[in-house]
Amino acid sequence: MTMPKTVQQLHRPDHLEIPVFFGSPLNGKMVRDMPWPKEALLIGIRRGEQEVIPHGDTLIHEGDTLVLLTDTTQRTRVKQRIDALLATLEKKHRD
User: Fold this and answer.
1) 3-state secondary structure the chain
2) Which residues of the chain have pLDDT under 50?
3) Residues 57, 3 contacting (CB under 8 angstroms)
4) Taking the CA of residue 24 as centre, how many other CA atoms within 13 Å lie in the half-sphere pointing to its CB?
5) What's the confidence (pLDDT) of residue 4?
6) How much is the pLDDT for 3?
7) Where are the domains of the chain?
8) Rounded to an integer, what distance in angstroms lies between the CA atom of residue 50 and that of residue 33?
9) How do residues 39-65 score in pLDDT, each as one tens digit?
10) Interatomic CA distance for residues 1 and 23, integer angstroms
């Protein structure tokens, strides 16, 4: 399954969002198990109508939208690292 580019810029230049699509390798992972880029901080999860404050033991679900905070000067680098992370996870998920 090929995943679309998932990192998007929100209306705020210092925020990025990652939608967790059906079949995403992020589904079922705990926040603490993800190797997030050091230039970014996961600050929220939109789950339907609910806003979830993420903790290490928060489980990521299909349909979630992960919201990351990053420095505007690092935004492009963070987007590239997240895309690479998702590609790696997708490959491991298929194997």
Assistant:
1) CCCCCCCEECCCCCEEEEECCCCCCCCCCEHHHCCCCCCEEEEEEEECCEEECCCCCCECCCCCEEEEEECHHHHHHHHHHHHHHHHHHHHHHHC
2) 1-5, 7, 9-10
3) no
4) 22
5) 45
6) 46
7) 8-89
8) 23
9) 999 999 999 999 999 999 999 999 999
10) 8
Do residues 51 and 44 make contact, with C-beta atoms less than 8 angstroms apart? yes
CB 16 within 8 A of CB 68: yes
Q: How far apart are CA 60 and CA 25, in angstroms?
A: 10
Closest CA to 16 of 3, 25, 6, 26: 6
Its CATH architecture, for the domain 8-89, is 2-Layer Sandwich (3.30)
Instruction: Retrieve residue 89's tokens.
Output: 């996870």
Report yes or no: 6 and 21 within 8 Å, Cβ to Cβ. Answer: yes
